[in-house]
Description:
Belongs to the Gfa family. By secondary structure, the protein is mostly beta strands. 9% of the residues lie in helices and 33% in strands.
Amino acid sequence: MPVELKGSCHCGAVRYSVLSSTPVPYQLCVCSICRKVGGIGGSINLGGHTETLKIEGKENLSVYNAVMDRDTPKERRASSERNFCKKCGSMLWLYDEQWPELVHPFASSIDSPELESPKTMVCVKMDSKPDYVRLPEGDKKVYQHYGPDSLEGWHKKNGLYKE
């Protein structure tokens, strides 16, 4: 059975809930986008079923489409939409029309339930991490780009997928 995740921004102007089959925060991204919008340590996305997303305070939402390959001839806007509170700036979830059935809440915005800690943290986008950014303590797998497992695949492989 999917888990109901309840989240909010820091100031409380936006609150949401979504059902998740992939509720364990296992993958920390330290790319420049995640560090700049999510904080120095990067961000961790969970998975949710888009059709179950319920939002209070929609009028306080804004969307950011990240700039890819900034300051190069290949500069472009990402198709993914990072939804955040326009009052306090808290990142809430990411949505991409390429996968319309999925929404990706930022683990940092989840209020309940208490999220389970993974046995091993997967750290991705090391090719974008500056030296001053420290990785979390504990068991971890580190990848220059992305690891071999999708969010769903990792949860299924580790017996954590909630059908």
